[in-house]
Amino acid sequence: MRVTDYDDCWLQYDAVEDPAIRSSYRTRCTHVFASTEGPELGVARDELRTGLGGLLGRDPHLWMHPPRSVDGFLAVGRRERMAVVRAAVDAEEIDALHEEGYIVRSVEWEGKDCIVVTAATDKGMLYGVYHLLRRMAARRPLADVDIVEEPKTEERLVNHWDNPFRASVERGYAGTSIFDWEQLPDLRERYRDYARLLASVGINGIVLNNVNTQKPDRPGANPAVAEMEGWQLLRERNLPKVAAIASVFRRHGIRTYLSVNYAAPILAGDLDTADPLDDDVARWWAEKADEVYDHVSDFGGFLVKADSEGQPGPYDYDRNHAEGANLLGRALEPHGGRVYWRAFVYASHKDRSVQAYDTFEPLDGEFLDNVTVQIKNGPIDFQPREPISSLFGSMPETSVACELQITQEYTGQGVHACYHVPLWKETLDTDTYADGEGTPVKDLLSRREGRGLAGVGNVGEDPNWTGHYLAQSNLYGYGRLAWNPDLDAETITDEWVRQTFGNDPDVVEAVSDILHDSWPAVLDYTTGHLGLMHMMYNQDDVLENHYNPSPGEWPGYHGASEDGIGVDRSEYAEQFHSPLSERYASVEDCPDELLLFFHHLPWDHELDDGTTVVQRLYDNCFEGVEEVRSMRDRWAELDDRVDTARHRHVAERFDEQLAHAKHWRDTMVAYFYDHAGIPDAHGRVPRDD
Amino acid sequence: MRVTDYDDCWLQYDAVEDPAIRSSYRTRCTHVFASTEGPELGVARDELRTGLGGLLGRDPHLWMHPPRSVDGFLAVGRRERMAVVRAAVDAEEIDALHEEGYIVRSVEWEGKDCIVVTAATDKGMLYGVYHLLRRMAARRPLADVDIVEEPKTEERLVNHWDNPFRASVERGYAGTSIFDWEQLPDLRERYRDYARLLASVGINGIVLNNVNTQKPDRPGANPAVAEMEGWQLLRERNLPKVAAIASVFRRHGIRTYLSVNYAAPILAGDLDTADPLDDDVARWWAEKADEVYDHVSDFGGFLVKADSEGQPGPYDYDRNHAEGANLLGRALEPHGGRVYWRAFVYASHKDRSVQAYDTFEPLDGEFLDNVTVQIKNGPIDFQPREPISSLFGSMPETSVACELQITQEYTGQGVHACYHVPLWKETLDTDTYADGEGTPVKDLLSRREGRGLAGVGNVGEDPNWTGHYLAQSNLYGYGRLAWNPDLDAETITDEWVRQTFGNDPDVVEAVSDILHDSWPAVLDYTTGHLGLMHMMYNQDDVLENHYNPSPGEWPGYHGASEDGIGVDRSEYAEQFHSPLSERYASVEDCPDELLLFFHHLPWDHELDDGTTVVQRLYDNCFEGVEEVRSMRDRWAELDDRVDTARHRHVAERFDEQLAHAKHWRDTMVAYFYDHAGIPDAHGRVPRDD
Known about the structure:
By secondary structure, chain A is of the alpha/beta class. The first copy, chain A, has three domains: 131 residues, Chitobiase, domain 2 (2-Layer Sandwich), CATH 3.30.379; 335 residues, Glycosidases (TIM Barrel, Alpha-Beta Barrel), CATH 3.20.20.80; 156 residues, Alpha-glucuronidase, C-terminal domain (Alpha-d-glucuronidase, C-terminal Domain). Chain A has an eight-stranded parallel barrel. In chain A, strand 4 and strand 5 form a beta hairpin. In chain A, helix 15 crosses helix 16 and helix 16 packs across helix 17. The radius of gyration of chain A is 26 Å and the shape is globular. The first copy, chain A, starts with 18 loop residues before the first helix and ends in a 13-residue tail after the last helix. In chain A, 58% of the residues are buried. About 1% of the residues of chain A have low confidence. At the A-B interface, helix 2, strand 2, helix 5, helix 6 and helix 8 of A face helix 7 and helix 23 of B. Chains A, B: Pfam families: Glyco_hydro_67C, Glyco_hydro_67M, Glyco_hydro_67N. Chains A, B: InterPro entries: A-glucoronidase_C_sf, GH, Glyco_hydro_67_aGlcAse_N, Glyco_hydro_67_C, Glyco_hydro_67_cat, Hex-like_dom2. Chains A, B: One of its GO terms (molecular function) is xylan alpha-1,2-glucuronosidase activity. Chains A, B: Belongs to the glycosyl hydrolase 67 family.
């Protein structure tokens, strides 16, 4: 067992200081009449004990009967079992409620001021409890509350790129994996606390292991540990480990999934093929699914990265992705499981942006109902900014999910502050025009089974979970957006800051400003903020991979040459519906922030405001560093308003970010200057001559 | 995995404040020379570290050799291994000692003041350590101590009505089940702490799951959790879970048992019958027992509720209960296991009180040696007061155990303070006249293998374990009474209060008075204290089940009508030995507190003191509320003598009890008045007219 003291993230539950609010809360929540049947309700009771204990400054009194001698109480349970709930909620309301929905309502019952949390399922009640606690953490009134809330998406998954092999996390920047496969089925307190974090924001599925399920062996590794590559989790001997961890997540309303290797019938079985049309292969998967469900009866399903970056897939047998995915879909179907099949497939012979569409759009309608095609937000690979994937709105007959990266692979790797919620909002709100105007990406992900969001996780063994304390906001924000993609970024930010750092208005304002300034700053100094991307160091064997600048390494992505910069991606623009396709195809209409993604333009091409492309790139790179300096200074001013440990850690990260931002700036502007040969108008760019 | 801060109950180990006592204790117990062989001795060492650390105000120094440089020490271990023990105890004393007995003796050895704890077994030594610590918690002297103690009963079990299914506890009023079957074999700290509590009072067996091993599913419940119904614990895949938890209890001297379903050969096996005379059924049970003992080599055995309240049994195959029980007895016999076969069997066609006797008495002598018939204290069902079961003293050829209810199903469900020890003492001390005068129930339970006590547990996941802090006294008192039914209630109360709340004389007196006033108060306001019972609300689907008053629901139990109240149970009275049968059958001789249990009397029937029945009922109901008020006020006065958290919690429970007692009183007196039409002499009963 490893160390167990770690941060509470947004579940801090600081004591309410305002006497009027505290008094109102204490009246309604000192006494808790809560149902006890079922693990989810046990979790809800525990969370109320912890949360109310913190917020009220004293332990709540738990009851199993409605207390008569008090001025008010909180009731959590089913309508049919509790008169106070019946007084607050009609039967029809419960009947009409989504199975994950809940009602939080104040009611006067037998002369008492009560709050009722109820739902159609235990899971809904757990969500309702978290809603109530979130509301109290923000000091919002309880006297007259009436909340009926349902999720806008059905599937809200976190994808872990955690390797059972050596407990590493691919693109993880917060230490080793929290999942201890060697010691499972023995459980860690940390699993519970992670499940609490996820449940508190409505995550309902977790993929435990990396989509890359095969990894080369490393010299010096303990052979007993090396045995545990991702694909091996499917072996029956490892299923009790999966079952144990699933038991923790289940009671928090979260189904467990595994990433599987397409060649599993060969690797984990004794077949010599994984051909999706082979009967033995189909039988193997069906039996394997039976075995998995025998251990985990509510198992979620499989996530697959096939024919991509060295992983096997149906192409190995000249079959297409629908044939590949449906093979697994058929095996899972009797158990209610689902296949998440990643659309991240590319070969090197043509521009990467067009390939997912070319591969998947022709297969629309061929996927089984229990197959979801999981599409990254953009066509490349989680760059600081990309246009949306052209597959959104192009597969009307297919269940699709949007894959977002919570972990900061290309946005500072947990050293830099970079708040991803505005980035995600941009993707989700982008209108695809698939059904004419008003068909944003988020609507394609909503309210149908098999549709939703998948976020690549960012937690690790670090005491703060996410490397950077501020990066906790990305996990929080992802969950909240997955629950309701209509939420605006500012609302999410405000919720997170208040729960994490308290309700001091100066702190709320400063931290909110820092978060909202952070992504533009990263865009400025790492890309020049005109749609360039993929300018980072890219050597797989070093830790700086995808972290340091290295614009000369992959010129094909940004097209820098003596005559200009940017890439003509008119072929990609054509994959969109009108008028999006025309907008991106036009230099005039294409938004500045995507201009060089879609167009190769001369260095001296004039932008709307008269600035040249190269000067804008210089300006933005310099501006980005100043934005970091400003964030750093803003944070420094909070030194007596945030607890010392967290304040110092974040301050030191900002010092590091500033130094690294300068390195990016200097590398980028030198590279631009080398190709453009046009000096900076303000004389800031170092010149070799 | 869940929250881990909970109360220490009676193992508080508060620091000794009196300088003379502390000095004496420190001289003898600062240094501990303790054997380290065996898990029970490891537990003993841990308990000494915790206990002495608290009591002495400093960590004890543990030695593995007799320390020479000190003035005195505590020695815990076997006579043959330690010279200091040989100096204190003769070999013959050890040879004569019961295997669970122990000796605690002061001795001067090599000029040092020593205390010796020794026994014939490691378990005995653990009990001796708890005895010593209990003595010190009560500040009793150690200078000249000589204790030789043995249990008076062989079997001292706690029965858990905990459902693996959804972690609920049937008749549990302290939150969810502490047993986390989903996550077992992963162990919780709480299991160890629960085992400590049980071992400290001498419990030596635990039945982990509810006697109702089948439970209907509930809408909204997570189906993945429903899988774990009680009967499924016998499945081989779940036996590692049983083995894990057994490993914790074993080292605390406690054997693990399971409740099993009589139809297990059908449910968990692939047979189509559970007929006890079927060879395949016998073979199935034998093989299942082999399997269980393969996982838990000291497994205790099976507890069975058969042909009762919907559970299957031998009646399904026209076999009797001896045939049913002996089937399981034969399977367990090769492994030293035991069957506890509940006598709680009734059908609806005649008065419930007579049915257990009618069913079981004719079978006396037919049960195997390793079958114990487990009889509830009274003939109905754990009512606030009942006469003893007529089976006690009627089955001389059968091993019997007395089943008591620690949990407060009908006595306020952990909201009301109700100390059960005096209730149990009444049962245990009642003379059955089975072997002429002087054959009390307790003697029928004593000193023979297979005889003893079974208590239905009252702990749950609540921080205080038992819902009400004062209800911890029932768990404590049950254990102490099971060890020695001759202990008087006052002794047990004094022990518990001192260990739980310290030795402040005012606190000891007040809490002791409250405990002893509590049962009579409950009898007064819930029954009128003339032997009525079963007047509570009885809808299974609501949390108020068996909690609220509802006297009109089951009039057959109390017989209220216009002409009088009470039930003629002369048939039941006849089942007792003389002169008990005549005493109960006679209106004149029957004790007041059981009068209406045995007799239907006119409302205006005059009692010995000239009061009428209905007036006594009125008076007692009103008096009961005043008794609660008095307990509440008495507790309130302790607000600066008991720590704030516990004081506030109990104070709030008393407020609630007072409100609920009034509700009972008002409901009952209105009901009596409605039938009797006789006004209250003091004008307190509300009248409709």
